[in-house]
Amino acid sequence: MIVVADTSPINYLVLIEEIDLLPALFGRVLLPQGVFIELTHSKSPTEVTQWISTPPAWLEVRMVSTAAAPELMQLDVGEREAIQLALESGADALLMDETEGR
Predict the structure, then answer these.
(1) pLDDT, tens digit, for every residue of 42-87?
(2) For position 98, what pLDDT does the model report?
(3) Ramachandran area for residue 30 (φ above 0: left; ψ -120 to 50: alpha; else beta)
(4) How far apart are CA 62 and CA 60, in angstroms?
(5) What are the residues whose beta carbons fall under 8 Å from the beta carbon of 62, sequence distance 6 or more?
(6) Average pLDDT in the chain
(7) Whose CA is closest to 68, among 60, 56, 59, 76?
(8) Which of 83, 97, 99, 102 is closest to 30 using CA atoms?
(9) pLDDT exceeding 70 applies to what percent of the chain?
(10) Chain centre to alpha carbon of residue 10
(11) CA-to-CA separations, 20 to 10, 13, 67, 70, 93, in angstroms, rounded
């Protein structure tokens, strides 16, 4: 099963030390480049920036190749790219906590 993740699910699973749930449940997780940038931001928690600095083999960072649909432009970059990547990759699921994005 392939899933795409937004920033918050990764961030909080790292912080509660349960990030290994993702490969156990889904196998492979895709992150859009925008989410990777958010996770490496200087305002991200130290635990998160340390974790993402050496991503595990089950995590793949990808660039989004299509332009965002106009209705997605009100979303933050991470949410917008996560939705786009899920559509482009034919992912089985999208992990997102933002109400507007869902």
Answers:
(1) 999 999 999 999 999 999 999 988 777 777 787 888 899 999 999 9
(2) 66
(3) beta
(4) 6
(5) 30, 31, 32, 33, 85, 89
(6) 90
(7) 76
(8) 83
(9) 95
(10) 7
(11) 10, 8, 32, 35, 17
Element (DSSP H or E) covering residue 64: none
- The predicted-structure confidence for 6-50, as pLDDT tens digits, reads as follows 999 999 999 999 999 999 999 999 999 999 999 999 999 999 999
pLDDT at 101 > cutoff 60 = no
H or E stretch at 34: helix 33-39
b (16+ CB within 10 A) / e for 1-15: eebbbbbbbbbebbe
CB 28 within 8 A of CB 57: no
The neighbouring-strand residues paired with 62 are 32
Where in the chain are the domains? Answer: 2-95
**Which amino acid is residue 42, in one-letter code?**
S
